[in-house]
Amino acid sequence: MIGPSSAAEEIVAHLKGLRSEENIAGMARFGIVTDDAVGLSNPDLQKIARLVKKDQQRAEVLWRGGLREARMLALYTAEPQRLTADLARLWAADFNSWEIVDTAADLFVEARLEGVLVREFAADEREFVRRTAFAMIAGAAVHLKKEPDETFLAWLPLIEQHAGDERNFVRKAVNWALRNIGKRNQRCHAAALALAERLAAGSRSSERWIGKDAVRELQSEKVRERLESRASR
Q1: CA distance 173 to 203
Q2: d(CA 219, CA 211)
Q3: Rounded-to-integer distance, Cα 5 and Cα 20, Å
Q4: What is the Cα–Cα distance from 48 to 42, expressed in whole angstroms?
Q5: Global pTM?
Q6: Beta carbons within 8 Å of 119's beta carbon, 6+ residues apart
Q7: Which of 54, 108, 186, 202 has minimal Cβ neighbours within 10 Å of its Cβ?
Q8: In this structure, how many other beta carbons lie within 10 angstroms of the beta carbon of residue 5?
Q9: Within 13 A of 69's CA, how many CA atoms are on the CB side?
Q10: Where would I find the H helices in the chain?
Q11: What confidence category does residue 1 fall into, taking pLDDT thresholds of 50, 70 and 90?
């Protein structure tokens, strides 16, 4: 039975013993890269993460092995306070899937690396590295509740700058970041909605898609009611 004292090699052997060809085929249909996968779901991996506990050194070994499930487990069990920007850059060079990116982005925000990495990763031409920048913004907008509005408002020009990137995994993350900023509070909502409306009238198809989708959500009754409720507290 694996547990907190289990070595990376023992955990990898355990993961490989749970291989499911049926699950691997299902993952591929959702755009998950399965070349190095054994077919474990993320809820199952999260259960394993709770068993083995956090261990930064072991997480780094798990990552280097390359197995999809081992890398997800590395992200779940890394220690945010010990995660450095250099290691985040090293891991980002291996990103090949939206699920790895989005899980890593949450970890990077928890490690408070967004101030160092968001602009750097947004400038990177690699699709999944650039996606990481905007996934980090989206996550920060939700989780960093005490962060001043100025942090998020300062990212709106970055969103506008890269809204023309037609690559699917980038444009979806740009859209996600814009919507999440707009849902923080009324001040952020006004600025995000103004940008969304500008993009909706843009000349490039990706801009228009991002803008129209964000306008639709930010103008929805559900979002407006939630923001009004927060403002009245």
Answers
A1: 20
A2: 12
A3: 26
A4: 10
A5: 0.95
A6: 133, 158
A7: 186
A8: 9
A9: 28
A10: 8-16, 21-29, 42-52, 56-65, 68-77, 85-92, 98-110, 114-123, 127-143, 149-153, 156-162, 168-182, 186-200, 205-218, 221-231
A11: confident
Q: Which pair of structure tokens corresponds to residue 132?
A: 């990481």
Q: In the numeric block, which tokens belong to residue 76?
A: 């779940």
- Residue 30, pLDDT > 80, answer yes
Which sign, positive or negative, has the C-alpha torsion 145, 151, 156, 161? negative
Give residue for tokens 């052997």.
Answer: 13
Contacts of 136 (CB under 8 A, 6+ apart): 105, 108, 109, 113, 114, 117, 118, 121
- Rounded distance between C-alpha atoms, residue 13 and residue 213, angstroms: 44
Q: How confident is the model at residue 233 (pLDDT cuts 50, 70, 90)?
A: confident
Q: Could you tell me the two tokens for 142?
A: 């939700």
What burial letters (b/e) apply to 194-219, b meaning 16+ CB within 10 Å? ebbeebbebeeebbebbbbbbbebbe
